[in-house]
Amino acid sequence: MRDQELKDIWKNPSRMEHISINKKQLLTQLYKKMKEIDNNIKKRDIRESVASIIGIIIFVLLGWDIPFFWSKVACGIAVAWFAFVIYRLKKQRQNEEPDVTLPYTEQLEQRKEYLKGQSHMLDTAVYWYVLPPFVMNVIFFLGAGNPSEWDNFFASALPEGIIEKVVILSLLAIFYAYIAWINKKASRDHYEPLIREIEHTQAELEHHG
Q1: What is the rounded distance in angstroms from the CA atom of residue 43 to the CA atom of residue 35?
Q2: Which end of the chain is more exposed for a tag (fewer CB within 10 A), N or C?
Q3: What is d(CA 209, CA 196) in angstroms, rounded to the nearest whole number?
Q4: pLDDT the model gives residue 4
Q5: Across the chain, which distance is largest between two alpha carbons, in Å?
Q6: DSSP result, 65-87
Q7: Distance (Å, whole) CA 77 – CA 134
Q8: Using an 8 Å Cβ cutoff, are 207 and 120 in contact?
């Protein structure tokens, strides 16, 4: 199959009149799955970015008002982490669209590397998406003093004793462990199968020429 035909398929999957039925189905199904996962990635990134912007605003205000030094430090960590999340997601999508001037097989290779990057990002979420906010919460709660020293509506939500703080942090540990697990599961269930399918398609195209 000529590269120009394959480029046309990438841009417009309906133009496949001169390709065998099997290759039509193979490429059309792959194209649809890629578009679906691209849409899911965009929705996820928008959702996470909006949540991060809201988080930055909340913790800037909280850090300004709360009287406890280490809790202020924790708020600073939270702001930095939210900003990093926005940067990390944006950076990961830099190579989202393949270079259509390249042969189709190379475009597939670009797409595969892009999806591998997305998959790796989810696999390592425990390091950049889970541990930083958990550490922030540990510093925030353990660093908080007597709630009565803080004249704010949210002061009543702060735990007073060490036992209450340990209970809250234990529940947060379970919650963040679940977040790490669902990210790994998303990588395993959504990205890895599509990467294997791209590799299968590459092998088919190379075999039939």
Answers
A1: 12
A2: C
A3: 20
A4: 55
A5: 77
A6: H---HHHHHHHHHHHHHHHHHHH
A7: 11
A8: no
- Residue 43 contacts by C-beta under 8 Å, 6 or more apart in sequence? none
Instruction: Tell me the residue type at 45.
Output: D
Q: What residues contact residue 20 under an 8 Å CB cut-off, 6+ apart?
A: none
Q: Are 63 and 79 in contact (CB under 8 A)?
A: yes
Instruction: Encode pLDDT of 112-167 as tens digits.
Output: 999 999 999 999 999 999 999 999 999 999 998 888 788 877 777 788 889 999 99
Sign, CA dihedral 7-109-198-122, equals negative
Q: Which two tokens stand for residue 134?
A: 């958990």
At position 140, the amino acid (one-letter code) is F
CA 102 – CA 7 distance, rounded (Å): 8
C-alpha 73: how far from chain center = 26
Tokens describing residue 154: 């949210």
Residue 46: domain span? 3-208
For the chain, how many structural domains are there in total? Answer: 1
* DSSP tag of 99: -
